[in-house]
Amino acid sequence: MKDIITASDYRKLKMLNILFFAEKPLSKKELTAAVECSLNTLKADVKLFNSTCPMEMAHIYEEDKRLFLKTAPDINFDFLQAYMITHSDLFVLSVSIFHNDKLTIPEWAEKNFISPASFYLKLKEIDTFLARSRLILKNKPLQIEGNEINIRFYFSHLFIRSHPYSGWISEEISFEQINSFIQKFEAHMGVFFSISSRMEYAIAICVCLTRIKQGYAAELSPVEKSTIDDIYKYYHAENIDFNDLDAFLDEPMSLIERYTILNISFLCSFTDISLDRIKFRIDYHKKFRKQRFALAEDILTLLDGRIQEYDTIKLAILDYLTRFTFVKKTNLILDVDHFSKKFYPDVITMEMIMQKLQKYERHPDYLFVRDNKKVISTYLHDLFNVSLMNELFTRRLHVKVISKSGFLWEEYLKGQIRQHYSEEYLIFCEELDPKEHMPQYDLIISDSHVELPSKTKVLVWHVPPTKRDFSQLGEIIEARKV
Known about the structure:
The chain contains 20 helices and eleven strands. It is of the alpha/beta class.
């Protein structure tokens, strides 16, 4: 983050983060110590932020010599971060390069009302950042050079982190057109993208399509090319409909580009809608990506059997590691820069994860671990600790109630059950056949026989419930040892 925005903007972002998550107003002394700046610098930063940021979005107030941040109800810290990134020099320059403006330094400086001398200083900072991502900033004209996949990842990551403040990134292709493809991808793969992750995947696809149309083709190594057949045959990817994307390009997309579009889905998050699909995708890694699978298995030993949703966590790790198939070094993943601790308790520590990864970083099959150890560790740290916090909820019995008489009778049965068991023991699920995630229920209680494709246990009850009915439910809850 320090390299994406100027040092002063980074300092302001840190100040905003501390104020955003503070549980009470902070004194200037407390804030200067946390931000690590002088009192005069803090005052100047507050004044500048308040003068440039729309008051209806966010504003820093002072009351009784203490500072606090007030934001609109629909503004979270990620939005403030997107605001800061969008107003950074790197973002403005990157948008110009992405749109293939091909401006010289004097032309860009004149267009953006900055002196060439000042712009040269900013370019030095930007060039340093790009070098860490193994990219080169050329200035005759201004453009980014390097491995095409790394360039696309850079643009995608920057535009995703600046959204929604920056808005949609293309005037040539709409989100709706790309989303039409994503829906077909979901149906074929048995996965679901949330509204926010759908936008992230759409942005990444838009970057790819724009670069393809500008004449910048994806380049794969011989090893990377050899994986295309594996994926296409295992997932029957030849049946995925790319017509919505081909229409933008006015020609069919090449096999390599289709493969790239499929793989960039792993830069985002999606949910498998059935346990069968989870196992199916895990088996792919076990069969074709043995090194990656072995690493994930070893990493999972840190949980020491404390997670019930073992396969779900395993697949999340495998999906995350997949992004390093192409993007060898993901410098500056913005979500690494946590100013505030996010998840408690800290059961699986960063040190434990780093130590586990350390034994792989010098192995020739795991060179990406050495280059991305901090990024991977941070992701795993959050994943493990959130999963452990969810475990108490997961271990409770999840029940779906079905009545042949309809909703009111289902609510009646729930009320009867709740008289015997609180949420400490049992949780009701509303969806029988969810479209956005796999079914969450462990048990179905119905007042008639039901036939389901799943192997979920069904208890057939009476209305009103009998002593036998509650006895059957009690045995199931007792067996779970909640």
